[in-house]
Structure formats: C-alpha cells, structure tokens
Specification:
Helix content: 10-25%
Number of helices: 5
Strand order of the largest sheet: 5-6-9-12-14-13
Radius of gyration: 16 Å
Shape: globular
Number of domains: 1
CATH architecture: 4-Layer Sandwich
CATH topology: Purple Acid Phosphatase, chain A, domain 2
CATH class: Alpha Beta
Mean pLDDT: 95
Number of strands: 15
CATH superfamily: Metallo-dependent phosphatases
Distance between the termini: 5 Å
Strand content: 25-35%
Largest sheet: 6 strands, mixed
Length: 224
C-alpha cells in the first residue's frame, strides 16, 4: 500500500502536486483557516470537494484545530462521509488489512476546535486500539517533529507528553500528524524514527509558519 500523507494545507491544497500510484491519501487536519465556524465553512467545503475528487482510491481525513465548522457541525460528519471520505474522529477504519485510527485532539491553547487540557488529554488516547497499524492524530507526540519558537524566541517542544507515552507503550507501525509547521531553521515536515521504537513518525504539514501564502512541502509518501 502506498500512502500519501498531507496536513495543514490551510486552504492551499490546490497548489499541491498530486503524486501518481497512491492507494490511500491521509490528511491529518487543518484543511481550513478561520476560527468563526460560519466563515470556516466555505473554506472547508472547498477542500472537501478537492479531496473527494482526487484520483486516489481511499481518502482519510482527521480534522484539526482550524477545522472549526466541522466541530460545530456547520459542516456535518455525514456530509463528509457522503463524499466517499473516511472521517476519523476517535474512530477506526481498516483498509486492505491495515488498521487506521484517527483522533483530532490537541492540548489546549486558545479557543480552537478539538482542544482539551494537557492534564486530561491522556483520557482521549485510552480509546486507541493497541493493535493500530497507522495512528493519525492532528498533533505530534512530545519530542518528535514538534519544535517551534516560543514567545521568547527560544526553541521549545510543544507535542503531547501523554501521546508520547501511549506511542512508546503501544508503538504503531506509523504515526501520522501535523499541527507543528516548519519555521525558519526548524524543519518539522518529513519523517523520523526514534531509537528503540519501530514506529515511523511523519509530520505532513505543507505550510511553514510565516509563509502561509504558499505550500513549502508536498507531504510525505510512505509504503505501508
């Protein structure tokens, strides 16, 4: 199975070159921009129409914190699935024997969609089946492709520690996410392995912070 992983397209999806020979495309959230769900709606619908029309057999979408119109049900989940898209919100799908699980939750900052307190977010990860092959979350685990600059312009890791713990104890074959863009001299987009784990981690973010007018990565292609 050849998989194309993209994320954080923020309305720029049409700039992406679509690769040939892909069996499954996974978008791990932030297809749109606006916080107001009614302003967000046309952005998300435009993305969904593009995503559904891709010449790829299976499409999997896990929303992100910017996809507010879906969280508020201005765009209903059944409208997404009616387009032939597998929408995973704490849910599972099996494709050709490969078990996918998707979850949109990230630690809270601001008042965006699918956010919860760092102290309690671990409860969300308890729902992930331990036999998952491809784990899809919007946000990264702590310490893996999650670096950014804080308000003091120092580098910090902003991923979820509870998610890191779950993945360490129950390592899937692949963990796909986005949320933390590349910026300046920090490159988060791409893949990484961690010593002692079999998991291949993929940050599919397609935009850089400070350059939200253009895609800077075409995603990641993985052989599953």
């Amino acid at each position: 199975m050849r998989l194309w992983h993209i994320s954080d397209t923020h309305g720029l999806h049409e700039q992406l070159p679509v690769p040939d020979g892909i069996d499954v495309v996974v978008h791990s959230g932030d297809a749109s921009n606006r916080m107001d769900p009614y302003l967000n709606e046309p952005e998300l619908r435009k993305f969904l129409a593009w995503f559904a029309a891709l010449p790829i057999g299976r499409k999997v979408f896990v929303p992100g914190n910017h996809d507010t119109s879906l969280e508020k049900r201005v765009v209903r989940p059944d409208e997404v699935t009616s387009l032939g898209i597998d929408l995973l919100i704490d849910a599972r799908v099996e494709i050709d024997g490969v078990k996918f699980w998707g979850s949109p939750w990230t630690p809270r900052y601001g008042d965006w969609a699918w956010m919860t307190k760092r102290e309690t977010i671990g409860r969300k990860w308890q729902h992930i089946p331990t036999d998952t092959d491809v784990l899809i979350t919007h946000g990264p685990p702590f310490g893996t492709l999650d670096a950014t600059y804080d308000s003091s312009n120092d580098t910090s890791m902003v991923g979820c520690r509870a998610l890191q713990k779950w993945v360490t104890l129950n390592p899937p074959r692949f963990h796909l996410f986005g949320h933390t863009h590349s910026c300046d001299d920090i490159r988060n987009a791409g893949t990484k392995t961690v010593s002692g784990l079999r998991t291949i981690f993929s940050n599919g973010s397609c935009c850089d912070d400070g350059k939200m007018y253009d895609v800077t990565s075409a995603g990641v292609i993985l052989d599953v």
